[in-house]
Amino acid sequence: MRILLTNDDGIYAPGLRALRRELMKIGDVSVVAPATEQSAAGHSITLLTPLLVQEVFDDTERIGWAVEGRPADCVKLALQEILPQKPDLIVSGLNAGSNAGINVIYSGTVAAAIEGAFYKVTSIATSLEYTKAQPLDFATASKLARQVVEQIIAHKPTEGSLFNVNIPALERGPVRGVKVVPQNVSPYVEHFDRRTDPRGRVYFWALPELHGPEPHPDTDATLLDEGWITVTPLQFDLTHRRRLEEMAGWRWDSPEA
Which domains does the chain carry? Predict the structure, then answer.
């Protein structure tokens, strides 16, 4: 099996290195990842600056390719320019921090997987929740993620299938199992520190503390908090189908210039 591994924490991130070691147990792994951290980059791509690409080595072992761009850029370049063959699977991660609930929209980790699904490759985003400062146990989390990936591909999902996997914070104890659940779409509430610079201009720092979304039973954020690995099938078609059917019956007057 040919596997493309990418992330949004950067090619030097310990989560990517740990997941690479696990995925090498099930296939031939190629790494194409951002040269620097791109957390919360969402599905942005680079248009107005060149995408510099450089091989990365650990001693004499080639790890992969570092791209001066976004996670979605990495997948585009990997599939169109860098890899000699189309991969059978794309895995993004292992991200430091969960990507559950509405955070899926902001996540560069998930965006990379979505980009892979655009190209009709089964793609899986993987993230590790944490409740304490690093270092995190990426080795154990990657082992868990690899086993979930194996179970997903064992079911032979259709080309372009897209999945979001979250591993619960390991410091809370052993995981309870795996749950297939929808997103919790309640918003997180951010807080900002208001400051004034020496020239009297107001600026804000986004604070790391977030108020979590409203708990909804049997959704990813809630089950993750209860110690379950969550798996959520995603899609990138944003069309509101029911509204589309409703609007088909609207009468439209042709606008005049």
Answer: 2-185+215-247 (3.40.1210.10)
